[in-house]
Amino acid sequence: MKVLIAEDDPISRRRLEGMLVKWGYEVTAAGDGIKALQVFRENPPPSLAILDWIMPGMDGTEVCRKVREMSDHRSSYIILFATRNFLESIVDGSEKGADDYLAKPVDFEELRVRLQRAMHILDLRHAFASGPLSTL
């Protein structure tokens, strides 16, 4: 599965990318929000994205909002990393279309479990979109 990582800190980005590759994901990395949005415009776009909240160019919530405005990317699963007030982040991110959240610093075991859940949800979305109810 193709996963986008958008993280402006190069050390954090490399650690996260290394772990995802170890877990078997195909990773594309971006250092800012503008590059992350460009990756969503590629064909095929990533099914799953992990976006840092605070990035240069465009923050993670703005990337999320713009992705949700693209009709062909509404099914992408987006996880936001938040470092500020976590409850406030959940509300703001949810309003912009995020599917899940993780606090920084990242606990890799928690991330692994959240990614498994994300893959399950993506499988369900795909099955629903291509199943008998999709023609209703």
Description:
- The protein has 136 residues and is of the alpha/beta class.
- The chain has helices at residues 10-22, 33-40, 60-69, 86-96, 108-130, and strands at 2-6, 26-30, 48-52, 77-82, 100-103.
- It has one domain (2-130): Response regulator (Rossmann fold).
- The chain is built from 5 helices and 5 strands; from the N terminus they run E-H-E-H-E-H-E-H-E-H.
- The protein is globular, with a radius of gyration of 14 Å.
- The model has no long low-confidence stretch (mean pLDDT 86).
Please tell me what the overall shape is: globular
**How far from one another are the termini?**
29 Å
Strand order of the largest sheet: 2-1-3-4-5
Number of domains: 1
Q: Helical segment tally?
A: 5
Low-confidence stretches: none
Query: What is the total tally of β strands?
Result: 5
Which band does the percent of strand residues land in?
Answer: 15-25%
CATH class: Alpha Beta
Major β-sheet, in short? 5 strands, parallel
CATH architecture: 3-Layer(aba) Sandwich
Order of helices and strands: EHEHEHEHEH
* CATH topology grouping: Rossmann fold
| Structural category | alpha/beta
* Cα Rg: 14 Å
Using brief descriptors, characterize the structure shown.
48% helix, Rossmann fold, alpha/beta, 5 helices, 136 residues, 5-stranded parallel sheet, 18% strand
